[in-house]
C-alpha cells in the first residue's frame, strides 16, 4: 500500500494545461474560488499569504480586491504563471514540507490554502507554520476535497486515512491523501486553530450553463469540496 504522497511537484507536469482549465472551469472558477474568497472577507489593505498558489488565479482576484499578496508553490512553472498573472505579488518556489523560513512570525493578516492540504504527508507541521506567520486576529481559509465524495468514489473504510491515486479527465495522474473530516478538524486543532465556519459550497448560477448535470448534483450531494475558516486559538 502506498503510504505517502512525498514531495513530488505533481502539477508541474501539466501546469499550463491546468492554468487554462482552471481560469474559467466549473469547479475552480464557479465553485471553490467563490467559496474561499467569501470566507476570506474584505482583503483590502491586508497582506495575504497564498500557499500552494498554483497559477495565481486566486492571487489575481485578491490583488484586484486590494490585497498585498505573497505566494508560494512547489511547482516552478506554477510560480512563473502566478507572477505573470499577478505581477504586483511576491511569489517563490517552496515545498510546504519545509518551514516557511522566509516569513517572520506574525507577518501576514490572512492565509489562503486552497485545494492542496491533501497533497501533504505532514499536514499538522505545515498548519503550525501557517499559524506561526499569522498576525493576532488573522485567519486561515482552506479548502479540500469533500471526504464524503472521496469515500463515495473509492469505497473502503471512510475513517482510514490513505493515499489515493486517480487519473483525471484530461489524463492528469494525481496522488493525494483521502482523510475523514474528523482528521482535518483534529489537524487544525493540533496546529493551534479553532474553526469559525465550515462551508459545503454550492456552484454559482453561472456554472449551470457549463454543466447542468454537475450543477444539479453539487446542489444535492456532498461530492465536491468543502471550505473552512479558522482562527488562531490564542
Question: What does this 3D model show about the protein?
Answer:
GO terms for molecular function: S-adenosylmethionine-dependent methyltransferase activity. Pfam families: Methyltransf_11. It comes from Saccharopolyspora antimicrobica. There is one protein chain. The protein has a 7-stranded mixed beta sheet with strand order 3-2-1-4-5-9-8, with helices on both faces. Strands 6-7 form a two-stranded antiparallel sheet. 35% of the residues lie in helices and 26% in strands. The protein is built from 9 helices and 9 strands. The protein is α/β, with parallel strands linked by helices. It has helices spanning 15-24, 26-40, 57-64, 76-85, 123-133, 147-154, 181-190, 207-210, 212-218; strands at residues 47-51, 68-73, 90-93, 108-114, 134-145, 162-167, 173-178, 193-199, 225-232. The model has no long low-confidence stretch (mean pLDDT 96). A hairpin with a 5-residue loop joins strand 6 and strand 7 (173-178). It starts with 14 loop residues before the first helix and ends with a strand. The protein has one domain: Vaccinia Virus protein VP39 (Rossmann fold, 3-Layer(aba) Sandwich), CATH 3.40.50.150. It is globular and about 45 Å long.
